[in-house]
Amino acid sequence: LLTTISIERCLSVLCPIWCRSHRPKLLSSIISGLLWGLSLLLNMLGYVLCTVRPSPKSCHILLITIGALNFLFCTPLMLVFSLTLFLRVKCSSQHLRTGRLFTVIMLTILFFLIFAVPLSVLILFDFLGYKFLYSPEIGFVLSCVNSSLNPVIYFLVGSYRDRRIKFTLRLAFQRAFED
């Protein structure tokens, strides 16, 4: 989902007229639904092949496929489009206004790169036969930290520049997504 958000946000900044006039209205919903469906399918397949009816070879191939898809396709696409968006916004002579949504996306991607990508690389290399000092407990902690940071990012970005101390979580989320 981070990859598709990065692509869509980049296209909306680089080609705003096309996005407003020619982009199908339901495109985001359809792509999100397809991605959720693919994720559900791969996870169900992994559950069946690795737990219910263990097939070590099939499980191994599926996990390598998921790791390669994540590391070799989604992550590079996300990086290219995010970097393009970042450079376009920061180097623009028009001084485009960077909103809260831009900040949320960039922080989410940054923490994804810090906590999730190194772990994915280690797991992929482990499945390919390269042995590193990898512990499932460390992977679980990193995954929890990565997932737990998103609400914190939304809250902090939503409450940024607000002088009041008392601030509701709902208002913070609303401000973070108002762009």
Task: Describe this entry's structure for a reader.
- This protein is globular.
- It folds into 2 domains: 1-134, no CATH class; 135-178, no CATH class.
- With 179 residues, it is an all-alpha fold.
- The longest helix is centred in the middle third of the chain and has 35 residues, at 56-90.
- The chain is 78% helix and 0% strand.
- The chain is built from 8 helices and no strands.
- Helix 1 packs parallel to helix 4, helix 1 packs antiparallel against helix 5 (100-115) and helix 3 runs antiparallel to helix 4 (56-90).
- It is a multi-pass membrane protein.
- Keywords: G-protein coupled receptor, Membrane, Receptor, Transducer, Transmembrane, Transmembrane helix.
- It is found in: Membrane.
- One of its GO terms (molecular function) is G protein-coupled receptor activity.
- Residues 1-154 form the G-protein coupled receptors family 1 profile domain.
